[in-house]
């Protein structure tokens, strides 16, 4: 049996499972078979957990409990999300073989909803990167062109969803790592408001910036997954105890009367003309649907990258101290004393990008540099928050590009960290301000690569973002377009 995720969204899968037209086991089997067929080209999965997935599917079929919309439906998890007893590495050598002793809260919530995990998805090492090329294990490719990067750091999640391997995946976003791979693969990716989704069990990169969120093909699917994973968690001291609305509640309401702000800085230097043109066309589309659109200014945008790379590296250098060769994963085999256990395990266990950030962060936090770097970055962060607050006093939504360029070639930027960092210029400010942001496909470049349109909302107002994104999606036929890898589903439907 083949089963085609391109023609069935979560609601349709749910109806079919409930109605008995398909079983969770059949769906799981078909998905695992499809991954075997397509992952040679895509390399999205680090590991599939076939036995556990099939077992879970069988027991859901037996119980016949398909009340939850996600029940019996397969998905994938980024490899920095802890799964009890299942290897979780953050795509780092230093965690090779590490099996967490508990589930992340999001995993627990999805298990309670009877979702079925098919395994763990590739990513940049410890979520540091924008192309998934810093993974210790493998290079994932873009679903639309296997010579191009899938984006990062949630590149495995983005590619797997775009190629139809799974209907949804979870990623994490510290400076753009859900939205950028969503943009590069032409799908929908949401970074929720900071505090909306529990970070408990997510490998900490930069604790004041990290959020887990869903990557899906459609806006409605995204809202359904957020419904399942959002909410207060006593195990995450930064999770916020505010009501979780039904995130599908505004779908279908359109954008009539919605006030949209377009920051002029988001179309400045370094933005590829093709990206600018498609995103401007998308904005015109929203206007035609009844939104009012004004140009605004977010004047401190250009300082975001510098402030982020100082703040993020400082927090990461501290968070990554726990990988000492003793408590988790890899230990250098030839260390002769305690000192060498630390230094050799870390030297051999971490990749170059991770080391670069540990050094930068340790420096920025040192006594002589703290005031000039860490403190300055924190002050800039406040200015960026103020910029957003001013705009959101008058507007419902901010719209612009997600990334300055579409996906580039494998190997093209990995040797030039600064160029790679500049690719985050439009996503980073959203993390610094803790706001929700979504990327949705706005069309394709001349050489067939997707271009992402970003929607930024007020804190805890994901529902308005979804409302606008769904109106945009409905007005276009972009969802109908499929990458060539979709042809792996010979016979198409079941
Ligand atoms: N590309 C950014 C970085 O390398 C963002 C990473 C992320 O969001 N995890 O830091």
From TrEMBL:
Q: Does the keyword Transmembrane apply?
A: no
Which residue positions are annotated as catalytic? 78, 153, 177
The lineage's top-level taxon is: Bacteria
- Asked if the Swiss-Prot or TrEMBL record annotates the protein with the keyword Lipid biosynthesis, the reply is no
* Entry keywords, A to Z: ATP-binding, Ligase, Nucleotide-binding, Protein biosynthesis
- EC number(s) per entry: 6.3.5.7
Specify the Amidase domain's residue ranges: 26-465
Q: Pfam families in the record, alphabetically?
A: Amidase
Root EC class: ligase
- Can you state which reaction this protein catalyses? L-glutamyl-tRNA(Gln) + L-glutamine + ATP + H2O = L-glutaminyl-tRNA(Gln) + L-glutamate + ADP + phosphate + H(+)
Q: Give an example GO molecular function.
A: asparaginyl-tRNA synthase (glutamine-hydrolyzing) activity
Family statement drawn from the similarity comment of this UniProt entry: Belongs to the amidase family. GatA subfamily.
Q: How would you summarize the oligomeric state and partners of this protein?
A: Heterotrimer of A, B and C subunits.
Function as written in the Swiss-Prot or TrEMBL entry:
Allows the formation of correctly charged Gln-tRNA(Gln) through the transamidation of misacylated Glu-tRNA(Gln) in organisms which lack glutaminyl-tRNA synthetase. The reaction takes place in the presence of glutamine and ATP through an activated gamma-phospho-Glu-tRNA(Gln).
Question: What's the protein here called?
Answer: Glutamyl-tRNA(Gln) amidotransferase subunit A
Organism equals Eupransor demetentiae
Tell me the gene name: gatA
